[in-house]
Write a sequence for this structure.
C-alpha cells in the first residue's frame, strides 16, 4: 500500500515536474512570469494531436517537430513582446508585474486562436496507454514516459547549466543580472535564450501530456497554476527545485487522496503553497533575495 | 468653497445617474449594473493597490465570499443583516490574509493573492460537499436590475468619497510613502504595517459587498460561478487603464473598457478572446501609467515627471 | 486642493459618465417592430469562450447551428398561413459568466427584441436567466440543465421547460438496473462509488446513496473528488482492492476520459462499470475503440429509431463530427418542438408557450409530450453495445435494449 502510493505519487509528480521546468527557467533567468505557460502547453497538445490524427505521426516523433517549434515561437514572442518591456522596466519588480499583465493578454490570444481553430470541444487520442509493472505497482507507460522525460531533460539541463560556459552565462544572469554585463555577458541574449528554452520545455510537456489527458482550448490555466505551485515550492529559477517540487506535489496529492480524503487533494496543495509563500517565499532551493 | 462646488456638482451627477434607469430598458439597466459594479471593484482595488503598488489578484476571492454569504443566508436573515454579515466575513478574512502577508512583496504577493482565490474556492467546495451535502445554492430575492443598480451606485459614491478622504488624510500620505519606498517610510516613523493592513481590509470589504449585491441577479450560485479568476484580472486592467493612483482613474478605465467588451462580445463573439488579449497587451505597452497620466504627460512640458509616475511597482 | 484640480476632476467624472450616457441613450429607443417582417429573429447567448466552452461546444452550439441550417435550407420556418420566414440569428458569447449571460438575455429581449431566445448551456446559467425570460414572456426550453427541483421552477416561472430530468431520476434508474442484474446473479451486492465535488455530481450521488441502500446494496467505497483531479490511480486502486462488482463514477467529461484510460492500465474491469458525463461523447469512442463495449452512463438512444439515425447522419455531415449520445438529440428535438409549435400557432410567444406545454411533437428523439412542462420520457441509463450507446432504462420504454452484464474485460 505504501509502496503503491509512493510510486503512483512519483509518476504523477513526473508530469508536474515536466510542466513546471519551462516556467521556472523563464521566471528565474528571463524574469518573465509567464501566465500563458499553460496555454503554450495546450497549443502543443493540439499540435501533436493534429500530427497524430492527420499525419499519423507518433507523438515521440512529434517531439522532434513541436519542441523546436516551441523554441522558435517563444524566441519570436520574446523579441516582439517581452524585449520592449525589459528595456523600459526600471527594476526587476516592475518587470515581473508587467510580465504578468502582458502574458495574461497573451494567454487570451493563444486561447482565442485555439478556439477559432479547433472549437471548444474535448480533444484527445490514445498513445502508449499500456500497463507497466514497476516494483509490483501498475502504472501507465505514457505517464511513466512523462516522469522519464522530466528526469532526462531536468538532469541534462541541470548538468548543462552548471558545467558548460553557455550554462554559466545563463546562471550568471539569473543570480546577478546587474553584474553580468561587467564580465561581458549579453543579458538580452541570455534572457531570450532562456525564454525560448522555457517555451521548448512547455512544448515537450504539451506533447507528453496529450498522450494521456483529454484537453480543451480553455484549460491552460490549470497547468499554469500547477506549474506556479511547483515553481514556488522549488524556488524560482531552480531546475533541481522544479524537479523535486513536482515530484513532491505528486506525492502530496497521492498521499492525501490515499490516507486523508480525495476531496482535499487540491485544498492541501494550495495550503502548502500559501504557507510556503508566507514562511519561505524563495522556495526550498531558491537563492535568497 | 471650491470643494463645496465640486461636491454639489458630484451630487448632481449622482442624482442624474440615480434617475437614469427610469428611462432605460432592461438591457440599459443591465449595462449600468455591470458598469457600476466594475467601477466599484476597480476603485476599491486601487484604494489599496494604487498607492502601495502591491498588485492584488485576490479580488475574486472577496467577491465570491460576498456572493456566497448572500446565497447561504438570504433565506434565514433579513437582507440588510445579510449584507452586514458579508461585510464582517470579508473583513475578517481580509485581516487574516493581510496579517499573514505583511512580509510578502512584489511578485510573491501577486502569486499569493492568485492562489488565495483558488484555496477559498476549494475550501468552500469541500465544506458544501461534506458538511452541508449540497453544492449550488439558490437565491430567490425579489430584486430586479434597477434595485441592484441603486445599491451599487450608492456603494460607488461611498467608495469614491472614502478614496478622496483617504488621499487627503494621514493614512493616504503614509501609503504613498510605502509605495515610494517602504524602508524610508518605516524609518520616517510611519507604521507601515498598520497602514497597509487598514487599507487592504477596507478595500476587501468593499469588494465583498459588490459580490453580495450582485449575487441575487444570478439566482443560482456555485463556486465555479462566483470564484471566476477573470474578474480579478479585468478589475486590475481597468484600474491600470485609467490610472490606479488617481481618484477618478479606475472609474475612467472601467467604463470605456466595459463598454468595449460589451461591443466586442456582441459583434465578434467568436474572436472575443483574441481581441481582448491584444487589447490587454496594448494597455500594458502604451498606457502603463493609465490614461489620465498619459493625458497630463502630453499637456505638461517634457522633462517634468510627477513623482507618482516614476515607477509603478517598486517593491521587489 | 486647487480649484482647477477640482474642476478637472469633476470634468473627468462627467466625461466618463457622459460617454456612458451617450451609449445608453441609444439603448432606450430599441428596434422598432416591423409589420412586414422578412425573418424570424432568434437569439442566444452561450459560452463560446471560458470554462464552459467545452460543454457548450459539444452539445449546444453544434445543434443550434445545425437546426438553423436545416430550417433555412428548407426555406425558413413554416407559419400557420403556409408562408415561410428564414431565421435570422443573433449570437452572443456569455464568456462563461452568469452576469454576462443575464445581460446578454436582457439585451436580446429588450434591445434586439428577438422573437425567441434559445437557452444557454448549463444548469446555473439556465437558472440565472429564468426570471428574466419569465418576466419578458419568452418560453425557456432548458435542455442542458439537470435539476430535481424542476416542478418547483415550473411553478415559479410558468414559461420554463425542463427537458433533461433531475439527478435523482438517473440515480434511481441506475439502482433499479443494478438490482435487476444482482437478482439475476450478474453482480454482487457491493458497490464502489465516486463522485465529483460539483453541482451535478453531488445531486447524483446524494440521490444514489439512498436509492442503492433501498435496493439492498452495500457501499464499500464512497469518495468525493475535486473538479481539478486528473490522476485517478489511487482511487482506482482502492476501488479495485474492494470486493465490489460494480464501479459507479458520477464524473464530468475530463474525469470520465481519465477514469476510462486509467482503469484499462490498471486492468480494473468490474462486471458493472458506470461513468458519468462524457461517456456518450464521440471522443470517448474514438479514444477507446472497442473497449467502450459494456460501459454504462447517462442517456442513450433507441438504435432502431429512423429519425434519430437520420439526425445523427445529418449532424455528422453538417458539423463534421458525430453527435453525443445524451443531450445532443434532446437539444435538437427541443428546437424541433419550437419549430412545430410556431408552425401551429404562429410567432405569438404566449401561444407558443401554451402549445409547447400541451402539444405533441414529432422529433429526432421520438414523439414528445411534456408533463407539467418537463420531459419525463428519457433514457436514464445507457450502455455501449456493438459500437452504439443504447438506452437500457427505463426498461419498459419502447426501444429499450436489454442491459448486457457482466461487461466484457478490456482488450
Amino acid at each position: 500500500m505504501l509502496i503503491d502510493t509512493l510510486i503512483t505519487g512519483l509518476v504523477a509528480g513526473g508530469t508536474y515536474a515536466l510542466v513546471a521546468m519551462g516556467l521556472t527557467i523563464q521566471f528565474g533567468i528571463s524574469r518573465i512570469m509567464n501566465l500563458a505557460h499553460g496555454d503554450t502547453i495546450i497549443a502543443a497538445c493540439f499540435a501533436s494531436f493534429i500530427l497524430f490524427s492527420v499525419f499519423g505521426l507518433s507523438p515521440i516523433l512529434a517531439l522532434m517537430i513541436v519542441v523546436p517549434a516551441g523554441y522558435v515561437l517563444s524566441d519570436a514572442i520574446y523579441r516582439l513582446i517581452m524585449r520592449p518591456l525589459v528595456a523600459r522596466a526600471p527594476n526587476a519588480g516592475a518587470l515581473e508585474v508587467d510580465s504578468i499583465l502582458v502574458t495574461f493578454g497573451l494567454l487570451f490570444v493563444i486561447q482565442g486562436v485555439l478556439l477559432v481553430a479547433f472549437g471548444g470541444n474535448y480533444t484527445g487520442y490514445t498513445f502508449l496507454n499500456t500497463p507497466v509493472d514497476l516494483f509490483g505497482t501498475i502504472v501507465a507507460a505514457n505517464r511513466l514516459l512523462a516522469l522519464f522525460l522530466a528526469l532526462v531533460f531536468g538532469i541534462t539541463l541541470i548538468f548543462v547549466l552548471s558545467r558548460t560556459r553557455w550554462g554559466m552565462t545563463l546562471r550568471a544572469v539569473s543570480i546577478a543580472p546587474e553584474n553580468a554585463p561587467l564580465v561581458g555577458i549579453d543579458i538580452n541574449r541570455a534572457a531570450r535564450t532562456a525564454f525560448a528554452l522555457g517555451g521548448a520545455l512547455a512544448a515537450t510537456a504539451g506533447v507528453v501530456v496529450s498522450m494521456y489527458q483529454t484537453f480543451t482550448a480553455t484549460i491552460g490555466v490549470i497547468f499554469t497554476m500547477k506549474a506556479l505551485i511547483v515553481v514556488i515550492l522549488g524556488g524560482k529559477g531552480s531546475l533541481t527545485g522544479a524537479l523535486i517540487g513536482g515530484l513532491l506535489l505528486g506525492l502530496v496529492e497521492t498521499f492525501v487522496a490515499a490516507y486523508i480524503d480525495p476531496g482535499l487533494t487540491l485544498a492541501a496543495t494550495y495550503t502548502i503553497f500559501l504557507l510556503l509563500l508566507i514562511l519561505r517565499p524563495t522556495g526550498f532551493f531558491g537563492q535568497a533575495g | 468653497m471650491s470643494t463645496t462646488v465640486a461636491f454639489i456638482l458630484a451630487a448632481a451627477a449622482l442624482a442624474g445617474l440615480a434617475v437614469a434607469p427610469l428611462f432605460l430598458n432592461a438591457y440599459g439597466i443591465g449595462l449600468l449594473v455591470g458598469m457600476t459594479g466594475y467601477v466599484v471593484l476597480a476603485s476599491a482595488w486601487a484604494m489599496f493597490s494604487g498607492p502601495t503598488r502591491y498588485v492584488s489578484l485576490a479580488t475574486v476571492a472577496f467577491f465570491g465570499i460576498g456572493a456566497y454569504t448572500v446565497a447561504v443566508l438570504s433565506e434565514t436573515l433579513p437582507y440588510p443583516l445579510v449584507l452586514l454579515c458579508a461585510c464582517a466575513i470579508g473583513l475578517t478574512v481580509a485581516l487574516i490574509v493581510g496579517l499573514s502577508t505583511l512580509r510578502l512583496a512584489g511578485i510573491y504577493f501577486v502569486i499569493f493573492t492568485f492562489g488565495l482565490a483558488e484555496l477559498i474556492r476549494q475550501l468552500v467546495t469541500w465544506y458544501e460537499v461534506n458538511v452541508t451535502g449540497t453544492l449550488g445554492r439558490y437565491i430567490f430575492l425579489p430584486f430586479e436590475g434597477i434595485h441592484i443598480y441603486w445599491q451599487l451606485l450608492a456603494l460607488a459614491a461611498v467608495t469614491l468619497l472614502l478614496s478622496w478622504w483617504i488621499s487627503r488624510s494621514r493614512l493616504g500620505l503614509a501609503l504613498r510613502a510605502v509605495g515610494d519606498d517602504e524602508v524610508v517610510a518605516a524609518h520616517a516613523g510611519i507604521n507601515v504595517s498598520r497602514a497597509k493592513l487598514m487599507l487592504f481590509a477596507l478595500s476587501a470589504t468593499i469588494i465583498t459587498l459588490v459580490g453580495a449585491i450582485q449575487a441575487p441577479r444570478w439566482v443560482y450560485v456555485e463556486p465555479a460561478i462566483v470564484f471566476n479568476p477573470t474578474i480579478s484580472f479585468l478589475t486590475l486592467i481597468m484600474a491600470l487603464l485609467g490610472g490606479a493612483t488617481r481618484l477618478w482613474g479606475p472609474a475612467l478605465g472601467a467604463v470605456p473598457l466595459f463598454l468595449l467588451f460589451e461591443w466586442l462580445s456582441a459583434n465578434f463573439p467568436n474572436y472575443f478572446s483574441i481581441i481582448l488579449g491584444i487589447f490587454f497587451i496594448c494597455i500594458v505597452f502604451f498606457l502603463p501609467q493609465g490614461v489620465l497620466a498619459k493625458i497630463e504627460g502630453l499637456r505638461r512640458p517634457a522633462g517634468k515627471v510627477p513623482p507618482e509616475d516614476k515607477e509603478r511597482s517598486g517593491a521587489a | 486642493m486647487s480649484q482647477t484640480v477640482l474642476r478637472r476632476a469633476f470634468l473627468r467624472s462627467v466625461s466618463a459618465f457622459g460617454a456612458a450616457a451617450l451609449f445608453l441613450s441609444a439603448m432606450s429607443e430599441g428596434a422598432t417592430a416591423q409589420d412586414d417582417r422578412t425573418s424570424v429573429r432568434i437569439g442566444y447567448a452561450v459560452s463560446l469562450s471560458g470554462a464552459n466552452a467545452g460543454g457548450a461546444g459539444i452539445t449546444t452550439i453544434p445543434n443550434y447551428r445545425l437546426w438553423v441550417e436545416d430550417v433555412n435550407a428548407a426555406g425558413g420556418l413554416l407559419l400557420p398561413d403556409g408562408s415561410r420566414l428564414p431565421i435570422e440569428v443573433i449570437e452572443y458569447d456569455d464568456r462563461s459568466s452568469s452576469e454576462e449571460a443575464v445581460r446578454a438575455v436582457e439585451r436580446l429581449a429588450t434591445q434586439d427584441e428577438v422573437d425567441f431566445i434559445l437557452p444557454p448551456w448549463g444548469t446555473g446559467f439556465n437558472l440565472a436567466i429564468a426570471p428574466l425570460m419569465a418576466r419578458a414572456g419568452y418560453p425557456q426550453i432548458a435542455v442542458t440543465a439537470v435539476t430535481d427541483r424542476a416542478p418547483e421552477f415550473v411553478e415559479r416561472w410558468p414559461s420554463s421547460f425542463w427537458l433533461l430530468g433531475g439527478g435523482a431520476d438517473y440515480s434511481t434508474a441506475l439502482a433499479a438496473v443494478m438490482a435487476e442484474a444482482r437478482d439475476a446473479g450478474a453482480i454482487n451486492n457491493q458497490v464502489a462509488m465516486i463522485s465529483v465535488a460539483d453541482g451535478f455530481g453531488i445531486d447524483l450521488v446524494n440521490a444514489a446513496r439512498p436509492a442503492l441502500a433501498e435496493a439492498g446494496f452495500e457501499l464499500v467505497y464512497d469518495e468525493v473528488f475535486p473538479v481539478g483531479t486528473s490522476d485517478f490511480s489511487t482511487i482506482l486502486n482502492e476501488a479495485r482492492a474492494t470486493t465490489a462488482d460494480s464501479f459507479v463514477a458520477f464524473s464530468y467529461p475530463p474525469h470520465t476520459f481519465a477514469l476510462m484510460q486509467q482503469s484499462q492500465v490498471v486492468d480494473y474491469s468490474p462486471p458493472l462499470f458506470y461513468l458519468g458525463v462524457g461517456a456518450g461523447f464521440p471522443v470517448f469512442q474514438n479514444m477507446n475503440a472497442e473497449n467502450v463495449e459494456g460501459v454504462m452512463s447517462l442517456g442513450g438512444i433507441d438504435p432502431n429509431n429512423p429519425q434519430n439515425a437520420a439526425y445523427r447522419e445529418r449532424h455528422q455531415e453538417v458539423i463534421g463530427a458525430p453527435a453525443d449520445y445524451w443531450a445532443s438529440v434532446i437539444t435538437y428535438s427541443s428546437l424541433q418542438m419550437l419549430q412545430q409549435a410556431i408552425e401551429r400557432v404562429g410567432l405569438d410567444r404566449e401561444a407558443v408557450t401554451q402549445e409547447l406545454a400541451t402539444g405533441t411533437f414529432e422529433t429526432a428523439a421520438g414523439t414528445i409530450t411534456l408533463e407539467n412542462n418537463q420531459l419525463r420520457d428519457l433514457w436514464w441509463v445507457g450502455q455501449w453495445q456493438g459500437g452504439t450507446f443504447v438506452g437500457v432504462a427505463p426498461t419498459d420504454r419502447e426501444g429499450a435494449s436489454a442491459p448486457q452484464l457482466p461487461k466484457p474485460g478490456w482488450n
Q: What stands out?
A: The domain at 2-279 of chain A is CATH 1.10.3470 (ABC transporter involved in vitamin B12 uptake, BtuC). Chain A touches chain B through 45 residues (CB under 8 Å). The longest helix of chain A spans residues 59-88. Chain A has one domain: 2-279.
